[in-house]
Amino acid sequence: MIKIISRPFASPTSRYFFSKEYLSRLFKQRHGANIYEYLQQVRMSRAKELLLNPDMKVKDIAQRTGFEEKSYFSKAFRTYFGVSPTAFRAEKTGRAGE
Fold it and tell me: Can you tell me whether residue 55 is helix, strand or coil?
């Protein structure tokens, strides 16, 4: 199931004909988090990795992690980690970048 939801635009509910509620409950039982929480964890983990490269723009990192808007990515990152992407990068690399 993790492989399916990790694919872009995959819809496990339509592929296997499960209700969203059932699939969400099953996923949470097996993984300790709901699907949204898991996806957010994966996206934020990848964002942290990408931010360690000071040559990548925050806008590009946002898009690579599934966010269409840099501002929404920055808000989500700050909510998740308590620090902005730029501040995280500056702290870890010594360079603020873009």
Answer: coil
Instruction: Give CA–CA dist 69/16, Å, rounded.
Output: 31
Residue scoring higher pLDDT (90 or 3): 90
Yes or no: say if 50 and 56 are a contact pair by the CB < 8 Å rule.
yes
Please give the model's pTM, rounded to 2 decimal places. Answer: 0.74
Asked if residues 83 and 47 have their Cβ atoms less than 8 Å apart, the reply is no
Q: How far apart are CA 53 and CA 92, in angstroms?
A: 10
pLDDT of residue 60: 97
Of 23, 8, 37, 40, give the one whose Cα is nearest residue 48: 40
Residue with the two structure tokens 């909510």: 79
